[in-house]
Amino acid sequence: MDRVRKFRQEHPPKRARIGEQEWEYIAAGPSRPERERALLLLPGALAVADSTWITLPHFEDRFRVIAPTYAPVSTMAELVDGIAGILDKEGIRTAAVSGGSYGGMVAQAFVRRHPERTERLILSHTALPDPSRVPALKKGVKLIEWLPEGLLRWIYKKRLAGLLPRTPEADEFRAYTMEVAGSATKAGLLALYRRVADFLGNEHLRPGDLDGWPGKILLLMSDDDPVTPEPAREAMKAMYPQAEEHVFTGSGHATALLQPERYFEVMDRFLGSS
Fold first, then answer.
1. Per-residue CA distances from 113 to 106, 109, 144, 210 (Å)
2. Within a domain: 150
3. What is the pLDDT of residue 35?
4. Does residue 110 belong to any structural domain of this protein?
5. How much is the pTM?
6. What ranges in the chain are assigned the alpha helix state H?
7. 13: Cβ–Cβ under 8 A, 6 or more apart, which residues?
8. How much is the pLDDT for 34?
9. How far is 98 from 91, CA to CA, in rounded Å?
10. Using one digit for the tens of pLDDT, what is the confidence trace for 166-220?
11. In terms of pLDDT, which residue wins out, 141 or 66?
12. Would you call 62 helix, strand, or coil by DSSP?
């Protein structure tokens, strides 16, 4: 985990009180917000800022990059309002917003609640609301409330490990994932699942609901992603018919790990387009 340790040394977290919550985040890159473009990197299910250790270094020479650690709030509205508060603390008016997997759900909530703060949007390997899944998820949350923290961490580790390919390229990130999951708290995990239920139950996301927003959208997908099978990918395209699309081949739910050069190439082209 040498690269992770180096990243942490070079990107110490900042802290800010926003409302009633203490927030932690990483701010990197040029600190002239009036002159530089900003990029908001939204973590996935690990929910911590330094989970961006693979992606953030690629962009920090060209963007003011912000990566938050998710505070233990229970709704997406609270979460994205807190993230907007971090942008305020950093003097950032608008940012390109990028979120993958769970972070893609956060990104979809952010652009709708704060469209004026969102310059453009990258949604990677993520999905849409699905109210049919909410009852089972809420039952699961009630069960989680009774489980001991150690058992919750074990379940969380198993779930995350199942998303990572068994390849040498993923070994480093697997070790990092097990470290972070091993320190997860019950409060944080409950908040994580409650926000998933909140997002999945959102019936206000509809095709065309961003027609008045002038930004551009990029959809990143993989043709063999088990988390977003073909019906989910087609639903994403239908939700965002104005979006650019790129479908990777054979990279599952871990394109940034297995095909980083191509992944960053597609993102760079989109972020650099006018």
1. 11, 6, 29, 11
2. no
3. 60
4. yes
5. 0.95
6. 2-10, 56-59, 76-89, 102-113, 134-146, 149-161, 168-182, 186-200, 230-239, 255-258, 260-272
7. 24, 25, 26, 49, 50, 69
8. 55
9. 19
10. 888 788 999 999 999 999 999 999 999 999 999 999 988 988 999 999 999 999 9
11. 66
12. coil
Q: Band of the pLDDT at 253, cuts 50, 70, 90?
A: very high
What domain range includes position 122?
2-129+204-272
| pLDDT average, residue stretch 119-134 | 95
> CA angle, 83 as apex, 197 and 206 as ends, to 5°?
50
- DSSP structural state of residue 111: H
Measure the CA–CA gap between 224 and 254, rounded to whole angstroms: 10
In degrees rounded to 5, what are phi and psi of residue 149? -60, -40
Asked whether 131 and 156 are in contact (CB, 8 A), the reply is no
**What number of CA atoms fall less than 13 Å from residue 120's CA on the CB side?**
19
Look at residue 54 and tell me if it is in a domain.
yes
**34, 45, 79, 117 from 209: Cα distances, Å:** 30, 26, 21, 17
Count CA atoms within 13 Å of residue 76 on its CB side. 23
What is the SS3 assignment for 229?
coil
Average pLDDT, the chain: 93
Helix (H) or strand (E) holding 91: none
Structurally, how many domains does the chain consist of? 1
pLDDT in the model for residue 203:
85
Answer yes or no: are the C-beta atoms of 96 and 122 closer than 8 Å: yes
Q: What angle do CA 64, 25, 240 make, to 5 degrees?
A: 65
CATH code: domain of residue 246: 3.40.50.1820
The Cα 92–Cα 208 span in angstroms is: 27
- What would the mean pLDDT of 26-39 be, rounded to a whole number? 81
Six-digit token string for 93 = 């008016």
Residue 166 forms part of a structural domain? no
